[in-house]
Amino acid sequence: MKLSASDAVKIVFAEDDKDIASALMAYLHREGFIVFHADDGVKAVNYVQEHEPDFIILDIKMPRKDGWAVLADIRHFTDAPVMMLTALDTDADKVYALRTGADDYVVKPFNPSEVIARIHVILRRLRHHVKDDVRQIYETKQLYINQMTHQVLVGPERVDISNQLTSTEYRILLHLIRYPKRVFSRGEILDACLAESGAGERTVDSHISKLRKKLEKSGINFVPESIRGFGYRLGD
C-alpha cells in the first residue's frame, strides 16, 4: 500500500444516505481529503479501481451491492485501509467485518470528528510502516513476498496466493516474515497488524488459523508455527 504521491489523501466514500454523506463529506473536505462519493456498491467498486484511493469508507446497507460484497471484491486488488460505517452494532457484525478485511468499524449515529480522528490514526500507522520498512522483498525457502506488488508466492512451485489473502492475513504474514525466527505474542501481532480494530487477542488465533489453511493448500504445513504458551513465529 502506497499513499498518494501528493500530500492530499484520496478517499472513496460509499454511502447512499444523502444527509449522512453530505455531513461527513463536509468534514472530509475540511481536512483536505480528496473524496470520491459513491451512492451504491457497484459504483464503490468501480471508484476504487479507477481512483486507487488511500482510504475507503463503506456503508454496509447499500443498493446494488452491499458493503460486505464490496469489501470482498476490492480486497482482490487493493489493501487500502477500509472503515465500515453502519447501523449494525452487534459484536458478530464487528468481528465479521474485521475478519473479512476491514480495518475499523464505526456504528451510526456517529460523531464526524471521531471518524476523522480514526482515519488519521490509521493513516499515521500506514505512513510509519511505509517510512520505516524500506525493504521491499522478503524471501524464505517456502515464501516470497513483494511489498511493491503485494505478491505472495508459496512453496517450491511458487504458487501465487495473493488474491486469496485478506488484508489482515497479508499483514500478519508480512510481519512474521520480517523476523522469521522470532516468536511474537498475540498482543504483539495484534498491535502490529490490528492496532485500531479493538479486537481481542483471541482474534489473532482466528486469523492465523485461516492463514495456515490457505498456506496448507499450497503445500506448506504448520506455518505460521504455534509456540505453546508464547505465541507464533513463521516457522519456515
UniProtKB/TrEMBL annotation:
Residues 135-236 bind DNA. The modification 4-aspartylphosphate is found at residue 59. Coiled coil: none annotated. Keywords: DNA-binding, Phosphoprotein. InterPro entries: CheY-like_superfamily, OmpR/PhoB-type_DNA-bd, Sig_transdc_resp-reg_C-effctor, Sig_transdc_resp-reg_receiver, WalR-like, WH-like_DNA-bd_sf. Residues 135-236 form the OmpR/PhoB-type domain. Residues 10-123 form the Response regulatory domain. It holds the Pfam family Trans_reg_C. The keyword Phosphoprotein applies. This is Response regulator transcription factor. It comes from Candidatus Pantoea formicae. The lineage of its organism: Bacteria, Pseudomonadati, Pseudomonadota, Gammaproteobacteria, Enterobacterales.
